Amino acid sequence: MKIVGIAGSNVGSKTRTAMDLTLKMAREKYPDAEITLLDLAEYNLVFSDGRNYTDYEGDTKLVTETIMGADALIIGTPTFQASIPATLKNIFDLLPVNAFRDKVVSVLVTAGTSKHYLMAEQQLKPILSYMKAHIVPTYVFIEEKDFNRKEIINDDIHFRLERLVEDTVLLVDTYARIREQKDAEYDF
C-alpha cells in the first residue's frame, strides 16, 4: 500500500508538524506500507497551464506522479482566508479530473481559530469529491491552542490522528476488496 502525505502549503510549520506526527503514527502501525511525505514547501512547482501532468518536468512531474501512484492520500492543509492555500489548489489543478478515482483521501486541517472548522467541508471536500476521491468522512481539525513549540500538546488530537490513519487504511483495504469482488464477476 502506498500512502502519500501532502503538507499543502509553502509557508508555516503547524501543518508540517501535524503531518510528521500523522505519518510517524502510520509508519509505526503499518510498517509494510510505503509512506511518502510531499511537503510543498520543499518543491519548486510551476503553475498549472492545462497540460497533462506527465508533460511537466522537474519537481512538478515528481509531485504529480507520486500523487497519481498513491493508494491513499493524507492531505494536511492550513486555513488561509477561510480556504485552502493556493499551493494546494495548484496541485489539484495540475492533476486530471479523475485523479483520485479509487484512491482514499483523508484530511487534517490547521487553523488559528475555531471559526474556520467548516473550511474542509465547504472548500476542500467538494474538490476531492469532484476529482472522484473516496473521502474519509471525518477529518481532524487542529487549532493554534493545540500546539506548543512545534509540538501538538492536545492528547485528543493525538487520538483523532491515530483514528484518521486507521480509517484511511481500513477504507483502502475495503475498497480494494470490493474492486476484487467486482472484477471476479467478469469471466474473461
UniProtKB/TrEMBL annotation:
Signal peptide: none annotated. InterPro entries: Flavoprotein-like_sf, FMN_Rdtase-like_dom, NAD(P)H-dep_FMN_reductase. Residues 1-144 form the NADPH-dependent FMN reductase-like domain. Gene3D superfamilies: 3.40.50.360. It comes from Brevibacillus fortis. Pfam families: FMN_red (PF03358). One of its GO terms (molecular function) is oxidoreductase activity. Keywords: Flavoprotein, FMN, Oxidoreductase. This is FMN reductase. SUPFAM superfamilies: Flavoproteins. It comes from the Bacteria.
